[in-house]
């Protein structure tokens, strides 16, 4: 009886361990804001560092997809990932991953729609990931605490690896949405970052741009008044 109690206690401790709450794949943008509505790290910057975080197991060929809004024109989007410049011919219409034909969502082989697909998308192969460092959960908890791979601050109870990729965007787009996943041998989706742990760069809302413009005008007026008073 005592042995069963000890085994049950150990099992409960393992299940409740923070390491098991950490997703196998996560995405994070340094300096971004976590949007609780979409459960996504969102930045309005056109140049930023994207972190791909792997946890709990080694992985081969982790792929990052970049998708734009359905109404956007891929030929108008400029995208550079870690020095690789994408052209209009690199964008495909449909559902990630590339090469899983037919390119239609079938409930398992492709990445779920999650309000993004079908749309124009492309991919970046970010390489293999090991278990050589400690990582944590990049999604904020109820108190706003999270593990920041850029600074290393926050709880990091699991083992894995984080890689950083410099992103530069330009042209005309509504957003560029990032997902991360690995594939099975038949090209179907194996593991992917939960949609509460993905990332996005978005064009600022018109109201935000208007406020910025008003602020700049006010600053210009202040400078002119100071120069005039001299």
Describe this structure in words.
With 230 residues, the protein is α+β, with helices and mostly antiparallel strands. It has one domain (24-204). Helix content is 17%, strand content 35%. The chain has 2 helices and 14 strands, in the order αββββββββββββββα. Strands 2, 3, 5, 8, 9, 12, 13 and 14 form an 8-stranded mixed sheet that branches. The protein is globular, with a radius of gyration of 21 Å. 33% of the residues are buried. Mean pLDDT is 84; it is low at 1-20, 207-212 and 219-230.
Question: How are the secondary structure elements laid out?
Answer:
Elements: H1 2-15, E1 25-29, E2 33-35, E3 40-43, E4 47-55, E5 63-68, E6 77-81, E7 84-86, E8 92-94, E9 119-125, E10 133-135, E11 158-171, E12 175-183, E13 189-192, E14 198-202, H2 206-229
Parallel strand pairs: 3-14
Antiparallel strand pairs: 1-4, 2-3, 4-11, 5-9, 5-12, 6-7, 6-11, 8-9, 10-11, 12-13, 12-14
């Amino acid at each position: 009886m005592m042995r069963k109690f000890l085994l049950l206690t150990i099992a409960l401790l393992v299940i409740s361990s923070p390491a098991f709450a950490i997703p196998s794949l996560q995405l994070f943008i340094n300096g971004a804001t976590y949007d609780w509505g979409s459960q996504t790290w969102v930045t309005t910057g056109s140049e930023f560092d994207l972190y791909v975080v792997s946890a709990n197991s080694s992985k081969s060929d982790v792929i990052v997809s970049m998708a734009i809004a359905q109404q956007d024109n891929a030929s108008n989007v400029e995208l550079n990932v870690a020095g690789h410049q994408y052209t209009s011919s690199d964008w495909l219409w449909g559902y990630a991953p590339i090469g899983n034909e037919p390119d239609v969502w079938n409930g398992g082989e492709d990445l779920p729609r999650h309000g993004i697909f079908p749309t124009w998308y492309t991919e970046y192969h970010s390489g293999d990931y090991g278990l050589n460092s400690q990582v944590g959960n990049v999604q904020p908890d109820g108190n706003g605490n999270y593990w920041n791979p850029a600074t290393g601050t926050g709880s990091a109870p699991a083992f894995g690896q984080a890689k950083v990729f410099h992103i530069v965007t330009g042209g005309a787009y509504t957003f560029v949405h990032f997902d991360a996943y690995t594939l099975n041998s038949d090209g179907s989706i194996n593991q992917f970052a939960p949609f509460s742990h993905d990332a996005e760069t978005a064009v600022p809302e018109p109201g935000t741009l208007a406020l910025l413009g008003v602020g700049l005008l006010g600053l210009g007026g202040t400078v002119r008044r100071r120069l005039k008073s001299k």
